[in-house]
Every structure is written in structure tokens, then in C-alpha cells.
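Whiteboard transcription, Tuesday session. T.W. wrote the C-alpha cells on the left side:
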């Protein structure tokens, strides 16, 4: 056996693995063919001509389609691991499980208990594993192997040990536009978090580059494998900070054989509302505050604009009148005890009729009796017509629009918000723009406060959420934002970048996972929310009563030690005692800092230099106010080189690039109360090169003093 084997021996080992991989793909093709045949048979059952045949068809086609999707998704890198065990057998690990023609296990699903030792065995505790091998592949072709000898004493004579380690090989590859699974290189502490109990709350903490996000996504795949009936039926919701982030991670779960998970950015959590822009930090702080609950509560109980404030009708010899004080009394009665407005619609007519009948005095009217009075007044009668005009069903977007009116907002905010905060909110809503990301939890809160209309008042053509197209017109948006059928519906909720959530965002997500298990991923040192105590309280309410299982990831696999040393000093300016992981590799490139009068010209030059020196993606990160101008200056470069992106600081959350050019770090620090934390995030996005360009170096002077 040995290290440093000649190329022929390495090629022999690769050929051995290629033969096995060929066998697995042959079996995969056979399984796919069987699944397609099952689908055809299912469609054939419909020709039986009775309801039972249709039921059988639907069940067979559904199962076949799910199997086909899993087989297709797992096609790339299907076999990635091999365990040589002390008792003499070999066990292969893959993205899905497969059996041979005799129903013997050919490939073990990475989530199965039998595969856990692949991630947990160490040289100190080999757990019966002699050699752990990672197979590197491109398509169906094995391109190489990487071995770890865990138990030399148990190794048979002549056992080959090849390569320098799969993890370091993975870390050195160029990045592209998507996050990839790390199923072949999961480390022991990561595997423990992935296989955490399926109940309660699993928190995954740790600094930048520790793999928190990808570990959480592998955990979602693991849960679906271990309890598919529960998690697939109830649904798994994955929420990330932005659409950019969701695009980045969208391929991870399908590559692990899971296609039934719902991915939503924070701006798209509410069905029918798709927000992509952030408010300025000062406005976001107001909208995210717990105080907004009181403001929204008042709005949800207010009189609709344009609704009548008096009712007058005739009944026999009586003139019956309800003035605004009478109507206010009825309003209080209907909304007493925390009743939701839309759910009281069926009670409005009766409440008005009761008050009006008590005012009937004429003998002829009294002789006809209350039943006759009610029959003539309700429905298409005057009271029915008035009730529909006075108490219309309201949707959340409609009531959110009321907040844009200065007089109404000042009334709702009296004693809750400062006058300057009211002005800031009004300014954020000028121009009739669609909701911001920070508006989405306000709309969701209004959905909750208003409640659903009674079923018999729904439009007959209402379409369930799941059947709606993403291309919705304004009327559909309002109708969807009226309803709240997705509350409590998920079996598992996974939140990434949880440290950024405001109290109102925690309330929005808490409603979707009231009876769910959770995976919560975050790092306080990277938080963009300026009031952590308020957020912690809201988090506690959202997760109340759930047992927590905490895991900390301690190794930074992303950043070179040179760049992370700078970022760590920024973190120490951002928070007290930041959670700083150990950076395990060096790139040979120190961060470079450029101070120049012509920042835009220097940014172009820095971008050209780093883009030439790395093979993968490059990000240019500029302050919010400067990003449009920088994007314009670099438009030709971005168009010519698909690897380059121009982003705002918060849009880099959870992403990684081969190189990052940071524009005007001092402006990033000054943009919000969380400016130092935001700069820490930006500086930890690069795997190889970091360059900063600015007209000042105050931030760097502060760092050098730490």
C-alpha cells in the first residue's frame, strides 16, 4: 500500500471505479425505463371507464413522475463515495439509493443510516472503516479518486491510497453562478447538524464560509428522506434573504433528488406579492419594528374610504336613521373580542337589523312583526345594500394602501410612532411603487388581522394559490393578499440569514411554521438588523414551545486566511466577541486596498486585474446609492463577461465568488447602523481575491487600530 503511487496505479484504481459506475448507470437507466413504463400503464388505466381506474391512474402516474424526477435530478455525480470496511466488504455511497436486478443494495443513499459513517469516521475513531474514497466525476465519467486511510493497521497489503484529499480539491475549484451540493465532502460537525432530530428547532451557527447554508439544505433533503410522508405532505419551506440568493441555491436540492421543496425569498413569502427592493435602513427599521403591529391593528379596524357614514330608510310609519355614532357602536360590537373583520361579514346585516328594530315605534310596523321587517330589509333590501357598501370585504393590499394617506397614517400612528417616523414612512410610499421587501410582512400582518371572508362570500372563480400563475394582474394580487390559507401549512421551515430578520418578519414566518419543525441558520456578527434584542423576542414568540438543538460550525472553508484576517478585524469592530471560525487554507494573495480620486476608473482597473487572475465568478459590491452608477460604468464589462456581477452589499448575503471588488467601504459602513457588520459580510464573500477601492481609508485606519 502507499502514498505517492505511480500514475499507472492511479489509473488502474480509476478504471476499477469506472466499471462500477458504469454498472450503476446501467441500473439507473433500467429504473428510469421501468418508471416510464409505469407512467404509461397508469395512463392506460384511465381507459377502464370507471372512477376506480382514474384513481389508479392518478396514483400510478404520480408515483412514476416522482421517481423519474428523482432519477433525472441525481444523474450528475451519481456515485461519489466508497467505504472499504475492516470486515472486507466495500460500500458505495450516492445521491440516491439503487438496487441491482437481484434486489441487492448496489448504491446507498447518502441520507441512509448506513451512509452516516462515510461522514463521521475519523482516523481517531475509524468506526470499522479502513479507507474512505471520494470519486470525482464529470457526467458518467470518473475523472479521479481521492483517498483517506483511516485505519492503517486494518488495511490489507497493497491497498492504494491516492490523492491529496477531496475537501481541499473541492475548495480550490472555480465558482460559478450556482451553489453546489457538498454531499461528497461533508465533514463530521456538518453531518451532525444535518442528521439532527426532525422535531423542534435545529439552529446552525458559525462564522462566514463554514457551510451553514449548504448544510441546512442537505438537512432538508435528509428530513424528506427519513420521514417523507410527513415532510412532503406538509411541505418544506426554504426562505432566504433575496431573489439573488434563491437563484444561487436553487440547484442544490434537486441535485440531491428532492424537487418538492418551496423556495421563497423574503420578498416572496406572501402569495401574490413579489417584492425585490429594500427600503433605506432607517425606513426598514421602522417597518420592521414590533410597534407596527399597533399601527396595522388600527388600520384593519378603520372605516373603508368612501363607505357611507349614515343610514336612512322608511318602514311603514317610521323613519329609521343610524348616524355615525350608531355605526361606530355597531363596529365596536362586531370587532369585539378580537374578531377579524372579514369573518364578521355574515353578522353585519343582523347587527344593523337588531339596532333598527329597536327603533321601530309605529303600530303598523309593530303589527307586521320583526320577521316581516327583516325579510324586507335584508338581502337585496335597503339594509343588505347598505351593509355591503358600509362593510365590504377588504384585502391586505387595499388596507396597506390606506397607510399611504397622511391623515390616516397619522391617526393610526398616534402615540406609537414619532412624527419624524411617520414622515419617513410616507416618503417611502410616494410614487405608488409596488411593495418593498420590508412591506411584505406588513401586508401579511394585515392578512392575519383582516382574516378570510366567509366561504359563501368568496368569488366563485377564486383560484387556489397553488394553481395561480406567477404572472398575476393587480386584481389577482389583491385577492390573493386577502387570504391566509398558507398559515400553519408547512411541516418544516428553513430560514437562512436568520440574524437579519426583523420582528415583523419573524411574525410573518412564525405563522407559516406554527406546528412545524425548523432549521434556523445565522451568525449575529453578520446581522443587518440593528435591534437584536427586539428580534430575539420576536424569534422566541415564533418558536415558542419548541425544543432547540444547537450546532456550531467552526471551520471557514471559503476564505483564504489572508482575507479572513482582515475581515475578522472588521468583525471585532462590528460586534463584541464575534464567532470567528478557523480559516483552513491560504491563497497566497493578501487583500489589496486602493485609495484614489477617480474611484470609477480604479474600479474598472481592479476588476480587469482580478477577472484575469481567477477562473470563476467576480462580484463588484457597491453601496446602495452608488450601485446604479457603478453598474452603468461597468455595463460593457458585465455584458462581455458573464462571470461578473454588480451587487448591493445586502444582495451578497449567502453568496460566494472567486474574487470581490469592494467599492467605497467607508460609504458601506455609513449606510446604516449595521454598516460594520455589512462590510464584514462583503469582505467574506471571496474565495481567492479581495480588492477595496475608495476615495477615503477611514475604515482601514479603524481596522488597523484593532
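and on the right, the sequence the group agreed on:
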Amino acid at each position: 500500500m502507499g502514498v505517492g503511487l505511480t500514475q499507472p496505479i492511479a489509473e488502474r484504481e480509476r478504471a476499477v471505479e469506472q466499471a462500477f459506475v458504469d454498472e450503476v448507470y446501467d441500473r439507473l437507466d433500467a429504473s428510469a425505463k421501468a418508471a416510464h413504463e409505469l407512467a404509461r400503464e397508469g395512463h392506460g388505466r384511465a381507459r377502464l371507464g370507471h372512477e376506480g381506474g382514474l384513481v389508479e391512474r392518478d396514483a400510478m402516474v404520480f408515483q412514476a413522475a416522482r421517481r423519474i424526477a428523482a432519477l433525472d435530478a441525481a444523474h450528475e455525480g451519481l456515485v461519489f463515495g466508497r467505504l472499504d470496511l475492516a470486515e472486507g466488504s466495500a460500500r458505495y455511497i450516492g445521491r440516491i439509493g439503487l438496487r441491482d436486478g437481484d434486489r441487492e443494495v448496489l448504491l446507498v443513499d447518502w441520507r441512509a443510516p448506513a451512509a452516516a459513517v462515510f461522514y463521521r469516521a475519523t482516523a481517531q475513531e475509524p468506526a470499522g472503516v479502513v479507507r474512505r474514497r471520494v470519486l470525482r466525476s464529470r457526467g458518467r465519467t470518473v475523472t479521479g479518486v481521492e483517498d483517506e486511510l483511516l485505519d492503517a493497521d486494518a488495511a490489507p497489503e497493497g491497498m492504494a491510497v491516492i490523492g491529496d484529499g477531496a475537501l481541499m480539491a473541492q475548495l480550490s475549484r472555480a465558482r460559478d453562478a450556482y451553489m453546489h451540493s457538498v454531499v461528497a465532502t461533508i465533514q463530521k460537525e456538518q453531518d451532525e447538524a444535518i442528521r439532527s432530530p426532525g422535531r423542534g428547532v435545529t439552529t446552525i451557527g458559525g462564522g462566514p464560509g463554514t457551510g451553514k447554508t449548504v448544510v441546512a439544505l442537505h438537512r432538508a433533503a435528509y428530513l424528506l428522506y427519513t420521514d417523507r410522508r410527513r415532510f412532503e405532505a406538509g411541505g418544506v419551506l426554504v426562505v432566504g434573504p433575496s431573489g439573488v440568493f434563491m437563484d444561487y441555491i436553487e440547484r442544490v436540492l434537486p441535485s440531491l433528488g428532492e424537487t418538492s421543496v418551496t423556495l421563497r425569498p423574503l420578498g416572496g413569502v406572501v402569495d401574490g406579492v413579489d417584492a425585490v427592493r429594500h427600503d433605506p435602513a432607517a425606513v426598514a427599521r421602522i417597518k420592521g419594528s414590533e410597534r407596527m403591529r399597533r399601527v396595522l391593528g388600527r388600520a384593519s379596524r378603520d372605516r373603508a374610504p368612501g363607505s357611507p357614514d349614515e343610514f336612512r330608510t322608511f318602514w311603514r310609519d317610521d323613519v329609521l336613521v343610524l348616524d355615525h355614532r350608531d355605526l361606530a357602536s355597531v363596529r365596536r360590537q362586531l370587532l369585539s373580542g378580537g374578531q377579524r373583520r372579514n369573518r364578521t361579514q355574515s353578522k353585519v346585516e343582523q347587527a344593523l337589523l337588531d339596532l333598527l328594530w329597536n327603533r321601530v315605534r309605529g303600530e303598523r310596523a309593530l303589527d307586521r312583526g320583526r320577521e316581516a321587517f327583516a325579510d324586507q330589509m335584508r338581502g337585496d333590501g335597503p339594509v343588505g345594500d347598505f351593509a355591503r357598501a358600509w362593510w365590504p370585504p377588504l384585502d391586505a393590499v387595499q388596507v396597506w394602501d390606506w397607510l399611504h394617506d397622511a391623515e390616516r397614517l397619522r391617526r393610526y400612528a398616534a402615540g406609537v410612532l414619532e412624527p419624524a417616523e411617520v414622515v419617513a414612512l410616507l416618503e417611502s410610499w410616494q410614487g405608488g411603487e409596488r411593495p418593498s421587501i420590508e412591506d411584505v410582512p406588513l401586508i401579511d400582518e394585515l392578512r392575519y388581522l383582516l382574516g378570510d371572508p366567509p366561504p359563501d362570500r368568496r368569488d366563485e372563480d377564486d383560484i387556489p394559490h397553488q394553481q395561480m400563475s406567477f404572472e398575476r394582474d393587480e386584481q389577482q394580487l389583491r385577492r390573493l393578499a386577502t387570504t391566509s390559507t398558507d398559515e400553519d401549512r408547512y411541516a418544516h421551515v428553513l430560514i437562512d440569514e436568520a440574524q437579519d430578520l426583523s420582528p415583523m418578519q419573524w411574525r410573518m414566518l412564525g405563522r407559516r411554521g406554527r406546528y412545524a419543525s425548523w432549521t434556523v441558520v445565522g451568525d449575529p456578527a453578520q446581522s443587518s438588523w440593528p435591534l437584536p434584542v427586539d428580534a430575539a423576542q420576536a424569534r422566541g414568540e415564533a418558536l415558542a414551545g419548541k425544543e432547540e438543538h444547537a450546532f456550531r460550525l467552526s471551520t471557514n472553508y471559503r476564505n483564504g486566511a489572508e482575507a479572513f484576517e482582515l475581515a475578522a478585524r472588521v468583525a471585532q469592530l462590528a460586534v463584541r466577541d464575534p464567532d470567528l471560525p478557523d480559516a483552513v487554507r491560504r491563497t497566497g494573495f493578501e487583500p489589496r486596498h486602493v485609495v484614489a480620486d477617480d474611484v470609477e476608473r480604479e474600479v474598472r482597473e481592479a476588476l480587469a486585474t482580478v477577472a484575469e487572475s481567477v477562473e470563476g465568478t467576480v462580484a463588484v459590491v457597491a453601496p446602495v446609492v452608488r450601485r446604479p452608477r457603478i453598474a452603468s460604468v461597468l455595463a460593457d464589462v458585465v455584458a462581455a463577461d458573464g462571470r461578473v456581477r454588480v451587487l448591493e452589499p445586502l444582495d451578497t448575503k449567502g453568496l460566494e465568488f472567486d474574487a470581490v471588488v469592494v467599492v467605497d467601504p467607508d460609504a458601506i459602513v455609513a449606510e446604516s447602523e449595521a454598516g460594520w457588520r455589512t462590510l464584514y459580510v462583503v469582505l467574506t464573500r471571496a474565495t481567492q481575491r479581495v480588492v477595496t477601492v475608495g476615495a477615503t481609508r477611514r475604515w482601514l485606519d479603524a481596522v488597523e487600530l484593532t
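Someone added at the bottom: The first helix runs from residue 7 to 45.
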